[in-house]
Design goal:
The complex is a heterodimer of chains A (244) and B (244).
Chain A lengths: L1 H16 L1 H20 L3 H4 L12 H13 L1 H9 L1 H6 L5 H21 L2 H10 L4 H28 L3 H17 L3 H8 L4 H10 L2 H8 L5 H26 L1
Chain B lengths: L1 E10 L2 E11 L4 E5 L6 H8 L7 E6 L2 E2 L4 H6 L1 E4 L11 H11 L4 H14 L15 H13 L5 E5 L7 H14 L4 E6 L3 H6 L2 E6 L2 E6 L1 H6 L6 H17 L1
Parallel strand pairs in B: 3-8, 3-9, 6-7, 7-8
Antiparallel strand pairs in B: 1-2, 1-4, 4-5, 9-10
Helix pairs in contact in B: 3-4, 4-5
The chains are: A mainly alpha (244), B alpha/beta (244).
Chain lengths: 244, 244
Amino acid sequence: MKHIWTILKRELVSYFTQPTAYAIILIFLVISLFFNFAFGSFMLAGDANLEWSFLFWHPWLYMLLAPAVSMKLWSDEQRNGTLELLGTFPIPPWTAIIGKYLAAATVWLLALVLTFPLIITVNYLGEPDNWRIFSGYLGSYLTCCVFLAITMLVSACTRDQVVCLIVSVAVCTFMVICGYEAAIRELAKFRLDFLLEALTALGVWDHFRSLTRGLFRYQDMVWFGSIIITCLLGTSAILSAKRA
Amino acid sequence: MIEVENLTKNFGAKYAVNDLSFTVKPGEVLGFLGPNGAGKSTTMRMITGFITPSSGDAKVCGHSIIDEPYLAKAKIGYLPESAPLYNDMTVVGFLKFCADVRNLSGSAKKEAVERAIETCFLQNVAKQSIDTLSKGYRHRTCLAQSLLHDPDVLILDEPTDGLDPNQKHEVRQLIKRLGQTKTILFSTHILEEVDASCTRAVIVDRGRIVADGTPDELKKQMPSGSLHDLFRQLTTHDSAHSAA
């Protein structure tokens, strides 16, 4: 555990001594709030639970911004050669993987925490179900964590951050689009039920929406958890294979 | 003490290191010589546990790098070839991070960092960001991290590469001084360093040991008494082969 904290601390220092984290958090806050007021009709819709006006936009933003946070995690280590240094320290590789992942997840936790004025506002203006807001935020955060884990897996495959960003954004975009209602409606015209079910299950919306509606479903937690754990194990396998 | 037993690394049909065996005793400074691509860095990476051997084993202070990797790694101080560093940290921040990874804390950590800074003459740049350092200072910073935990075994991959003559002299003196109490294995292209720092030298060519002995014993193998001539005689076959 101590080593996870050591790696986590180093990565956080790295994020916050460079403009990366500040820029991404700022862009997320500005765009998500702009969408909330401009397209989400926050003041007109009376959506006190923030489901449609605010949280709905999050997967769209994460698919572009989450990879920008975690793309450097292993690509940078490989490009700078510090992977060799890390690989010869007397620490298990999984401590570095978890430490790095938690650092990227912490940056996004901070970004979400900084949207707190919106929660204060809806509580001031109306009578929201705060548990449902919490559940929505949890869904949003877990979606972000899934995208971070996918990007981390891709970053273990390449030493080029740009390649990592492009591939990760493509995968995350696919996961957002393939379960989206409009895309599902179009696909339904082909009458391929098995494909439709597979894409809905793979896409984020089914799992994200159930949490924004305030539903804690066992299968959603398994979906989020299994993708994150698979990506972390995959990262470990790729890094081990590169050293074999 | 380093005991290398039948160490082999092959990438498909190509053998980077082929059945290499040698021992380095405490108080011995072993110069690891060979042309480019002879397998020096690969051997060092296997001894430090960064890459897995195809067969054979290396023991560091009695601990197998395969069966007890963390115990073996804890005994090693390693300077990789390109002296990789985290560019987003300061020199002192990087050394503190390495001390944390090496399980140093409190006053032991503070003393270790101060001692490493003093030993490697880094006082002037201690609070400077690593990305602003010259090549010589970068090399010395990486050397400092290898000395932090006062390891029994030092493995240095081309420790004087890229240094100016004064810095080379300082590093050679440092190796000589540390070699009185520690086991040191260092690779070099510069044959003068064998005389300046080594108690014994090994010449490797295409993954195999082609000469082993004290500098004087090696020189006596040639009528001219020149280590350069011996090196050329034993390894030009490889260069000619590569050129063809």
